[in-house]
Specification:
about 425 residues, alpha+beta, Beta-Lactamase, Alpha-Beta Plaits, 3 domains, eight-stranded mixed sheet
Length: about 425
């Protein structure tokens, strides 16, 4: 006789199922052939669609509560082949509400009580955990989307700032983006050195050149003049067609004498650069090359934001601006005229020549006018790397200094082309 024969089979099964009976999970116990023998109360409360499941085939119960056929097949395979099953996520719709469960099952073995050999398992309700995880995932995805939006907006702002920088002088651009009192329109009375230049007979040039060539000429000219102005510390006020208005002494100043000296250096460098580029412009159809005239004056101006609520312009107002314009108009081709105040400030460092006393339009008294030539000594000039080179056999002139690296790459390509042509010539001579 076996030990199991001395005990009541049903009592032993009930006793073995006692811990599951009070569990908060939905528990079941089935025979080896998956015929259900016992379930706890939570099993039916979890799945109200089920009625009496005793003696029912467990895979049929899984189908009845809505498990996909694929998961049922996986359950049967794993319980038979592996003896254990873990399905971490089972989604079941109960009363139009999606619930999420995990199913854990294992085969049981008992040598003393063979009728305990079967399958025991439980459904764990993980809906709350799943919802929290889903919410966390949604928050994470939302955070990622927000970060992507912020990054995209940052790229757009950076691109906008880069484009905006081309419309403003670097000093003005910096002051705008660093100004904490952005709502205030501040104006100041300052002693400034004003520079104004234009191209002689530019209207005739615009009427004769093709639009593409005209654009190439004027863009190169303004780019080169702007680069020199920025290097010398000038604030580029505006371009008026071919005319350029620049001032020194705001928003930063090194003193009125130094401001005037930097303006003089800028004008001299601009004039020399125009001469260097004239060969290039003649090839574009400017037959006689470009001729410029420049005027410089120093005096007290009002500087700040002027305009309307729709558009502001950071600019200068005052008689020195008008005087610089009159001097520029009076100047002969390729000359720089300065007023007496500017001459007195920089006279110890530059060579200048008295021209005449003129009474510009809008001025009540004559103004002594001087022609600015060059610095008296090389030590007073600002150091500047030449953008041109004239050798015994080769002349190099950088046409656009805004991208020196591109010019270097172009010179390398020219070198490679010359080397290739030279080798080809030697081969032809030998043959």
């Amino acid at each position: 006789m076996k030990v199991e024969d001395f005990f009541n089979q049903q009592n032993i099964i009930d006793l073995s199922f006692f811990n599951f009976y009070n569990a908060i999970t939905a528990c079941y116990y089935a025979k080896d052939n998956l015929e259900i023998l016992k379930v706890n109360k939570n099993f039916l409360s979890f799945f109200p669609i089920l009625g009496n499941v005793k003696n029912a085939y467990f895979p049929d119960v899984l189908e009845q509560i809505g498990l996909p056929a694929k998961q049922i097949e996986e359950f049967i395979h794993d319980i038979n082949e592996k003896g254990t099953v873990l399905i971490p996520e089972i989604k079941i719709s109960i009363n139009d509400e999606e619930r999420v469960y995990s199913l854990l099952s294992t085969r049981t073995k008992n040598e003393s009580f063979t009728y305990l050999n079967g399958v025991q398992g439980q459904f764990v309700d993980r809906t709350a955990e799943f919802n929290l995880r889903k919410e966390r995932q949604n928050l994470l995805e939302e955070k990622i989307r927000d970060r992507e939006i912020i990054e995209e907006k940052s790229r757009q702002l950076e691109s906008l700032a880069t484009r905006l920088a081309k419309y403003l002088s670097p000093q003005i651009y910096q002051s705008i983006f660093e100004n904490e009192n952005e709502g205030e329109q501040t104006h100041a009375r300052k002693n400034l050195t004003i520079f104004l230049s234009d191209i002689v007979k530019f209207t005739d040039l615009a009427d004769t050149l093709e639009p593409e060539r005209l654009a190439a000429v004027i863009n190169t000219y303004l780019s080169e003049m702007s680069a020199i102005a920025v290097e010398c510390g000038g604030t580029i006020d505006k371009f008026i067609g071919d005319a350029v208005l620049i001032f020194f002494g705001d928003p930063e100043t090194e003193g009125e004498q130094e401001d005037a000296l930097k303006c003089a250096e800028m004008a001299i460098r601009m004039m020399k650069r125009v001469g260097e580029l004239n060969k290039h412009w003649k090839k574009l159809g400017v037959v006689d090359g470009l001729k410029v005239r420049m005027g410089i004056s120093t005096g007290f101006c009002t500087v700040g934001n002027f305009g309307s609520d729709l558009r502001l312009d950071y600019t200068v107002l005052g008689s020195p601006v008008n005087l610089a314009a009159r001097l520029q108009t009076t100047a002969e081709h390729n000359t720089i005229l300065i007023d007496e105040y500017t001459k007195d400030l920089i006279n110890s460092h530059v060579n200048s020549k008295y021209i005449d006393d003129i009474t510009p339009k809008g001025f009540a008294r004559p103004i002594p006018v001087y022609r600015l030539k060059d610095f008296k000594s090389a030590k007073h000039r600002k150091r500047r790397k030449s953008l041109s080179h004239v050798g015994d056999r080769v002349e190099v002139n950088v046409l656009d200094s805004s991208n020196i690296q591109a010019a270097i790459e172009e010179l390398k390509r020219i070198q490679e082309k010359f080397e290739s042509d030279y080798i080809e010539m030697k081969v032809k001579k030998k043959s």
